[in-house]
Amino acid sequence: MHNNWAFSQLKQAAPNISAGIVSADFMHLAEATSELSAAGVAALHFDVMDGCFTPQMTGGPPWVKGIRHENMVKDVHLMIRDPLTRLPEYVAAGADVITLHAEMNGDLGSALDFIHGAQNANDSQRGVMCGLALFPETPLTALEKHLDQCQMLVLLAVDPRAGAKQPPLEMIAERARAARQLLNSADHETLLCVDGGVKVENIDAFAAMQPDLVVSGSALFKGGAPQQTAQTMLKGLARA
C-alpha cells in the first residue's frame, strides 16, 4: 500500500488553494509558481479538457509532466471522454491527484480503482490521490455509489460546458453544505473542494462554505501580483 502524500499535504494545509494554471502566462510561469508557493498555496491545478467532454481543449500528459514545483501538489482534473484508457499516461506524467467526473463515459468504478492502485511517478513510496467531481447541476446522489472510493469531492462552481457560467453563490453554498453533511456521514475522511469563480472579491463567501480546498485561476494570475493575491485569499479562507 502506497502512502497518500497528497492527501496529507492538502489536509494539513486546509483551507487552501489549488492554482488553476490554465489561466497563467506561460512565459512567466516558473516565477509565478514560485511566488504562489512562497505565499503558501498548496497545489497546482491542471484542467485537462479534450474538446469533447467539454467544448474547450487544453494540454495533455506532456503539459502536465512539464510543469511542476517541488513543494506543491500536482492536482490533475480530467474532463475527457472515457478517461480510463488515458489514466496510465497521467500517472506517468506525475499527477499527485487525479480527479474524474461522476458524469464520465465508461466504467467509473474501475477508473477509481486504477487510481487507488497507482504508484506515484514522482516518488515510488507515494500513491495517487483520487478525486471525484460534479458539474453544478448534477445531484449529489450521483456520487453516493462511489463515495468510498474517493478522497476528495470537487464541486464545480462554474460549468465549463456553458462558457464557465456560474450559478448564484447562494446555490453553491447550499450545495457545499449538503456535500459537507454527506461527507461527515461517510465512514472515511474525504476532503471538500470548490472549483471555479473564486476571487478576492468573493473569498469570504467561499470561505463560509468551509471547503478544504478552492480552485482559483484567473484571479491569481491576471492581476500581475500572484503572491499578494494568494496571501489575501488565504487570509480570507482562514477567517471562516
Automatic annotation (TrEMBL):
GO terms for molecular function: metal ion binding; racemase and epimerase activity, acting on carbohydrates and derivatives. Transmembrane segments: none annotated. SUPFAM superfamilies: Ribulose-phoshate binding barrel. The keyword Metal-binding applies. Pfam families: Ribul_P_3_epim. PANTHER family: RIBULOSE-5-PHOSPHATE-3-EPIMERASE. This is Putative ribulose-phosphate 3-epimerase. It comes from Magnetofaba australis IT-1.
